[in-house]
Amino acid sequence: MAAPESGDGNNGAARMVTLISSDNTRFEVEAAAASLSQTLQLTILDGGGGGGDGIPLPNVDSATLSKVLEYCIKHAPAAANGGAPNATAVDRAELERFDNEFVNIDQSVLYSLIMAAHNLEIEGLQSLVAKKVADMIKGKSPMEIRRTLGFPDPTPEEQAEMNAHMLEYGWAYE
Amino acid sequence: MQPDIIPNKRKSRSSRKDRCQQSPLLSGLPDELAISCLMRIARVEHPNIRLVCKRWNQLLSGNYYYSLRKRSGMAEEWVYIFKRDNDQKLTWHAFDPVNRIWKSLPPVPSEYSVAVGFGCAVLNGCYLYLLGGKDPVRGPMRRVIFYNARINKWLRVPDMLHKRYFFGSCVINNCLFVAGGECEGIHRTLRSAEVYDPNRNRWFCIAEMSAGMVPSTGIVYDGKWFLKGLNSHRQVISEVYLLASKTWSTASDEMVTGLRNPSISFDGQLYSTDCRDGCKIRVYNRETGSWTRFMDTRRHLGSSRALEVAALVSLNGKLCVIRNNMSITLIDITDPTTVIEVDSARMWETFARKWQHRSFMANLWSTVAGCNLKTHIMHCQVLQV
Fold this sequence. Notes:
heterodimer; A: 174 residues; mainly alpha; Potassium Channel Kv1.1, Chain A; three-stranded mixed sheet; elongated; disordered N terminus; B: 385 residues; alpha+beta; Monooxygenase; Neuraminidase; four-stranded antiparallel sheet; SKP1-like protein (chain A); Skp1_comp_POZ (chain A)
């Protein structure tokens, strides 16, 4: 994970770009990692983000951006291999382990990641976080789902509608 | 059960009010992003998530959610089986191949519960049609109903132009074709054919076959619909409908003579079972114009009625063999040595005992106690949601 704003002079090393979060923190990362974002890719191809300029990201705060970049750095090598068709099983298992751990986070962080992945158009991250939300629902009763996702308790009216639906579609809940 | 026709009950004033006041699908996320999460929820969870709140129920009641699932490759295929038990009542159940469980479904509308010779077809991947057939009391029917797997309801569409039963049916370009069959009257064996276009929601006559036929086998191959069956003199005849010219002609090559039930047009190739239990499969070779052995599991299961193949369907890109005992075998066409036996028959026995016990309790007139699991499969289809 690149620290905010390190010095120049990595001659011959991978090209670096600087991203600036909404709260003005600067992140320097390899262009290849940042290019996982479709939004950033074009700017970077145009030569943006280098030197002292940096690319401002007014919709992403530093906590979220640092998490997003953690994902990008981990996934950049595989992405460079064209979706890793020649990756070894070990590599794939390692990425999968990383992904599972990566989304093991609070719901508020997860939602921020969903927004950021959408704004930055990072396809892999978008489906990873969306799938996590779907997995949080898996195997739970409607009431458990409501609690997990922070819904308020159902009103008597909602409860009545629920019961009516159960009655009509009783066969579906056997 | 009467098919529900869902009225277009949009109360404009209250719905506008609803929209202003309605809570987000997921609190803290714009709806667009919430949907991108919710569309990934497995189909088996759908009845449950409909109960979470009104908005989720609305989302799962509309087409948008499902078209998004389809477009994103999230849609799941389940096998649907119509069968007749010893009490002659038609029942149907769905099998979820991912979770390997059988699911209950809304009862088949009463007009089909004792009907014979009705057709069954799928349009749009998720609408299952039952059509025609003969009711033992009221006689042949023109009726057409369909089950919408997205909203789990039976609905009705316009009747066919002719009453018919034991006819042939197929789907080409998402239109439903029917031909031949039997009816009452002087010309019992029908030559007539018709097509249902779901976009225009009506039936149209197409050219008549050259002779009346009660089809026993049919297949769509190379943009042609091949039908083989018996004419009014109980002789085997075959005809082919050419979609391009909208005409019928006779067909008598090796492909048609070798065509047997059940068969399937899968990935541009024709497959047919070569043994009653489906342990051997044949494929039609268009270069040599002959049927050849495609695969042989070398594990003959037996020749009883229960082990007989009822249908071949395409399931999640695999060739799926379904037997009367509700067992399912999946074959990877690209590698026919990879044969997956799905444990569906054992799952079925457990499920059916529970289910039959319930229906026995619900209907004390029923004389079949919950131990008779003998079934005869009428139709198998795959629906994607």
